[in-house]
Amino acid sequence: MLKKIITVVATVLATGLILSGPSAYAAPKANVLAVQKQETKHQKEQVKKEEIQKKNQVKKEEKLKKAQIQQLKSIDKKLDKIEDKLSNYQDKLSDKEEELTENINELDKNQSDDVQQVELIENESGDIQQDELDDEELDEEALTDEEIEEQIKEVEDKLKEHQGYIGKFNSLQNQLNAVTKQLDVLSSKGFDRTILAERYDRIASLSQELAEVLAHIKDVQDQVKEAIKKDTTVEEIPPVTTIPPTKEWKIKFNKKLDKNTLSNLDIIVMDSEKNIIETTFSYSDKTETVTITSLQHYTAGETYTLYIGKQIAANNGLTLKNSYKMNFSIK
């Protein structure tokens, strides 16, 4: 009997085991599918993430390339402006040198006994606005055309900070140095070195030209000082003080002048170190007056010398008996 019971129990247990078999393995199969599904999802997300990263990288590279191209455009325009200003000042200096040679040759000639009266009339001009300039920074944001034009304007603004030609040429050299730094930044960011090399060569050429001009202008100024020193007929006008930085000088003559005898070396202004100041002058035939204007503000506390050469002639050919020199200080 016991044996029979054991057999039945065994049979039941075996049957239960067989019936429970499929259920026992169902759960592990579901887990495997879930894991596979999760991995597939993760892979898709990873692929999508990589695609987004690639797109962002392309956009970043395009943005950087655009910024670099605009920076290069700005650099080219700056170099064009610097070259233009250098050429302009060279022309002025060439004219001055020709006038200087003529004036030195005339110093030993006899002058007319007929004296033209000279009267210095004070007159203030309007203010000239000058912006303060900050050091430029090169970033990855593309410059707009308006911003590029503003940077080009800075070349002019920086020149306005200097009155004498030597200061202006040094300013041009400093700006060339700044452009070199811009090129260095582009080079460090992987910009085409062949394209940059053209700009580096251009800067080197302009720097060499500036160095030669600086040496030349120093020689011209020495000749000017020597010419004034040799002028034994110069009459010194009493110095004047507390002159405004925007001063214009008006020189009134008692006869109508021959405009062809007016030159930049017959009417010049020098600073305390005898550097020639960049000035312009105009003549009114109606009032018989020459107006002298400095292209930049005079410097506060500085003393300048106004020199009026005796080669200025009236329409009848008569020239001044004396040249004139006057010191003036800026308040």
Question: Which SSEs are present, and which pair or pack?
Answer:
Blueprint: H1 2-106, E1 118-124, H2 145-159, H3 165-188, H4 193-230, E2 235-243, E3 247-253, E4 267-270, E5 279-284, E6 289-294, E7 303-308, E8 324-330
Parallel strand pairs: 2-8
Antiparallel strand pairs: 1-3, 3-6, 4-7, 5-6, 7-8
Structure description:
- By secondary structure, the chain is α+β, with helices and mostly antiparallel strands.
- Helices cover 55% and strands 16% of the residues.
- The protein is built from four helices and eight strands.
- It has a four-stranded antiparallel beta sheet with strand order 1-3-6-5, with no helix packed on it. A four-stranded mixed beta sheet has the order 2-8-7-4, with no helix packed on it.
- Helix 1 packs antiparallel against helix 3, helix 1 packs parallel to helix 4 and helix 3 runs antiparallel to helix 4.
- The longest helix has 105 residues.
Characterize this entry briefly.
By secondary structure, this protein is of the alpha+beta class.
Radius of gyration: 41 Å
- One letter per element, helices H and strands E, the order comes to HEHHHEEEEEEE
Mean pLDDT: 77
Shape: rod-shaped
Which stretches are poorly predicted, pLDDT < 50 over at least 5 residues? 107-115, 123-139
| Strand coverage percent | 15-25%
* Biggest sheet statistics: 4 strands, antiparallel
Number of helices: 4
Number of DSSP E strands: 8
Fraction of helical residues: 40-55%
Regarding quaternary structure, how should these chains be classified? single chain
Helix vs. strand class: alpha+beta
Strand order of the largest sheet: 1-3-6-5
Distance between the termini: 136 Å
